[in-house]
Amino acid sequence: MVCQQRRASTECGVCMEDFELQYRTRTNLAVAMAALLLLSPFAINNFVQGRNILGVGSAVIVTLLAFNAWCIKVRKTVPWTTTFLLAPMIIVFLNIAFQRQGIVGALWCYPAVLSFYFMLEERQAWIMNLLLLGVAAPAALSALEPAVGLRVVVTILAVSVFSAASIRVINNQQRTLRDLAVTDSLTGLYNRTLLDSTLNRTMEQSFRSGSPSSLLLLDLDHFKSINDSYGHDMGDEVLAEVSALLRSRLRASDQIFRMGGEEFLAILHHTDLLGAERVGQELCDLIATSTIVPQKQVTISGGVAVLSQGESWTEWLKRADECLYSAKRQGRNQVVSSN
After folding, report:
1. Where are the alpha helices (DSSP H) in 144-288?
2. What is the mean pLDDT of residues 306-310?
3. Exposed/middle/buried for 63, CB within 10 Å: 0-12, 13-18, 19+?
4. Contacts from 240-245 at CB under 8 Å and sequence distance 24+?
């Protein structure tokens, strides 16, 4: 079932980046705020102790952290300065700290290694940590006793590897939980969690590009009789099989939601009214001619609505729902449309 959910996520491909962005921004904000609070006293202390070069370096890092926190809080995005200014500045600062403070400077490498994996994408974090190791290794071996310097280099490498492994597990777990949160466990289709944001985004793209978008609302006919006659296990099998048939006919760019019960919604991008009607009727024919329940025909009814300029997504969905009920009233196993 997890594989089925991942396949549904791949097919839909919309709004997942919102979850990734939220995860990254929240993580970066937490790291930025924690580092800002912890490093500020050390920056002030460097100036008080007359270590002006270290004071300037740490002040620059604190300033960049504050800017990052502000960007994430206000703009809801991770600024480019994280990769191209903050991370390199940390490496430069650590090199100076090594040269001037010896083992004390080496201690700052460990939180830096971990913060890179939280602040940056995985590949960027690996690059920055390799650069850090490239700077730290010669600095440690020259500024410290050889045996101590070697231990510092080895432990920095170990912390980097362990951090990478831990972050990989956390990220994979986060993606799994995200998939579980937004997909229907029975069918592998999206549930209603992403419906609002997906419809809003579809409307924005359609209005901006001038390309038509259509909703196809589908509902299995007489589904209660299947549960009553064959049991709920068979009803679940029917829902899963119908979902697979819908997925097999619709394009990878279309989004398919299980609205609840035996009702499904497909968002058809770049599809006008005639195209959506054709897709809906093909789905009706496909399901009606498939052997889903032995010795019983399973059918589905549909309502189609093409997006109109200026309407809200609730109005758009309501028109598709009205068409669906018209299809039910007119005898089922058919599609009714509204422009």
Report:
1. 146-182, 195-209, 223-230, 232-249, 273-288
2. 93
3. middle
4. 240/186, 240/187, 240/188, 241/290, 241/292, 242/287, 242/292, 242/298, 242/300, 243/187, 243/188, 243/189, 245/283, 245/286, 245/287, 245/290
Asked if residue 245 has pLDDT above 80, the reply is yes
CA-based torsion, 221, 227, 232, 237: positive or negative: negative
* Model pLDDT, residue 17: 58
Distance CA 182, CA 204 (A): 22
- Report the relative pairing of strands 300-306 and 335-338 from DSSP bridges: parallel
222: left (phi over 0), alpha (psi -120 to 50) or beta: left
- Would you state the structure tokens that stand for residue 214, as one six-digit string? 């259509």
* Residue pLDDT, tens place only, 139-185: 888 888 889 989 999 999 999 999 999 989 988 888 888 888 889 99
Cβ-Cβ contacts under 8 Å for 205 (sequence gap 6 or more):
211, 213, 269
Look-up of token digits 């997909």: 183
Q: Using pLDDT thresholds of 50, 70 and 90, give the confidence band for residue 1.
A: very low
The answer to whether residue 312 scores a pLDDT higher than 90 is yes
Q: What is the DSSP string of 97-142?
A: HHHHHTHHHHHTHHHHHHHHHHHS-HHHHHHHHHHHHHHHHHHHHH
What phi-psi label fits residue 332: left (phi over 0), alpha (psi between -120 and 50 degrees) or beta? left
- Identity of residue 26: R
Q: What is the pTM of this model?
A: 0.69
Q: Are 306 and 315 in contact (CB under 8 A)?
A: no
CB 187 within 8 A of CB 258: yes
Catalytic annotation, residues: 262
